[in-house]
Amino acid sequence: MATTYTPDYYDALIRRYFDACNAADYQALMDCFTPDAVHYFPAGLPEVPWRTADTISKKWIWCVETLGSQWTIERILISHDKPEAMIEWTHWKNKSGTALRGAEWYDFENGKIKEIRAYYASPADKGTPINELVDFDYKGRGYALKSAGSAK
């Protein structure tokens, strides 16, 4: 019989993930993810997307150690009938005195984070014709590939 995970379970998992990020705790981070997890980001960052729990965990530890990163969760919405969630967050880069706000979509599998898609509240990359997540399969996931009002 398959385990059923509740919205409260996913809420607690996301909060454990952020606590592990802030603590730069490798094992606690690893415990939040499926081994093949992927974290997608908008264009403009090096080496994205981050693939595997190990990579994601090490990258967040690097951010804490190098940038003085800390994160706060501003809002969480958990689906009542699907293994997915949406959050808003703030990424505090304490060494530079800057911050970045954004949102993330979470997909879960077997009670762990399988995928995170990050969206930033920042200026669009004017050199990119369509600002979207790097290497995310928009077509394969059924996303619109052009505006409903665009020429055929």
Automatic annotation (TrEMBL):
UniProt KW keywords: Isomerase
Protein name: Ketosteroid isomerase-like protein
SnoaL-like domain mapped to chain residues: 14-115
Alphabetized InterPro entries for the sequence: NTF2-like_dom_sf, SnoaL-like
Alphabetical list of Gene3D superfamilies matching this protein: 3.10.450.50
GO MF annotations in UniProt: isomerase activity
Any Pfam family hit: SnoaL_2
Native source organism of the sequence: Pseudorhodoferax soli
